[in-house]
Amino acid sequence: MIELYNTFGGNKANLSIYTPQRANVSLNLTRIDVLSSTSGRVYVFPSEEFEIEIQLNNTGELEARDVQITPRLGDFELISTDARAVSSMCPGSVESFKYRLKAPYRAARANLTLYFELEYTDDNLQLGRVTRRTDTYPVEVEINPPVLTVTREVSNRTLLYQGRVIRVTVTINNTGDMTAYDVKWSDLPPSDLFVLQGTTSWEGNLPGGRAKRFVYEVISDDPIGCAETSTVTYKDRLGNEYRASSGETTTRFSPKLVVYKTIGALKWNANETGPVITINRTANITVEIKNAGNAIARNVLVEENIKGLEVLSGTTSWKGELLPDQTVSYTYTVRPTACSGITANTTVNYSDIDVKALNRTLQDIPEGKCACYCTKTLEEVKFTSSEKLSGLYPDLNITVVNGTSRKVMPGCIFEQCDGQRERFRKRGDHCHRPVRVPGCRRPDNQGAG
To answer: Are residues 204 and 322 in the same domain?
Structure first.
C-alpha cells in the first residue's frame, strides 16, 4: 500500500510507503455461566454443567484465514458447542462461540485448567510471506464442593482422668465455603457399652465454615477394647454424595490393680528406703489391693513372697474379683529371722484385655455409621512389687567386756551362732546378767556376736 502525504505544501511533496504487518486474532473469555459465585470468585460443583462463551477479535491489519479453535479440556467433558472453523476474519471483525462443559468429580476443592488452542494464517502480499500463527489460552476453573472433616476423641482412664465412664467427643467441621446438605452421622456403640448420656446421632445441613460438636459417655462393667471410627455422609447442592471418616480411636475398659503396703503406720514405695523392722520383735504388715481401673478384675490372685521373716499369724494371700475402685486387704504378723536379705514382696495376677487382639485394620465401614471392632479376649497380667525392707539391724547392743565377756543390752532374746536361744528375764532397761557366747562371729559388723 502506498499513501501520499503533502506535508509541506507548495511545490514540494513528501511521499511515505506503509506496509501492513499481520493479522492479530485474540481469544477472550467473555462469560461463564455457573450455578454459584461469591466474592468475585467463580466456581463449579463437581459434575456440574456450565457454559463458557469466548470471543475472537482480529485487531490486526491483515485478513486472518483458516481460523480454528481446538479445546484441550483435560478432565472436563464437552457436552455441546457452536464453535466452527472460520475461513476468514477481516481486520476488526469479531466471532463468538459457546461451549457447554461438565466438570469432573472431585471430593475436595481443586483448581483445574482447561485450554483453547487458536490457529490462523495471514498472507502479507507485499512481503510475500504467509504465516501460520498459534496461541494457547488457559481458563482456570475452581471446583468447590463442601468438604467435611470428622475428628474423634476418647477420654480413656488416666492418672489425671480417673472416672469410670469414657467420654467420646465427635466434631464435624465444614472446612469449605459451600453448604453440606443432608448430613448424616450416627455412632452406634456395641451392645457391651452402655450409653449413659449425650448425643450419638444427628442429621441436618451444615453451612461452609461451620462445625457441630457432639459428646456422649459410655460405661462397661466387663473388660473390653474397641477400635472405632466415626463416619458422615452428605451431599452438595447438585445432589453429589460424599463421605468422610475420622481416624481410628481405641476405647478400653480395663482393670488396673495397685498395691499399697504398710508396717504399722509406716508406708513405703518401690523405689524408696523402707522402714526398719527390729530383729526379734514382731511387725504387722498390711497389704491393700485396689482396682484403680474402670472394669472388673477377674481371676485375681495375690500372694506374698517372704524371705528372712517368720510368719506368726494372719493371711498372706487373697483371691477373687475386684470391682472398679474396690479395695481389699489382709494383714499378717512377722518376726525377722535375719539381719539382711529380708524381703516381703507381693505378686499379683489378674485378667485384662489382650491389646494384641485389636491389631486389625477397620474395613467395610457401614455407611454413615460408627465402625467398631471390639474384643473381649483376655490375657493374664502379672507383676511383683519390689519393696525393700532396709536398715534391718538386730535390737541388740553386744559389747566386749574385758576382752572376753559379751553383754546383751536391751532385748532379751538372742540367737546364738549355733542356733540355740539364750533367754533372759528383763529387769528395767537391761538384762539380768551378762552372757558369754564363745566362738561367735560378728553378724553384719554389728558388734561381736
So the answer is: no
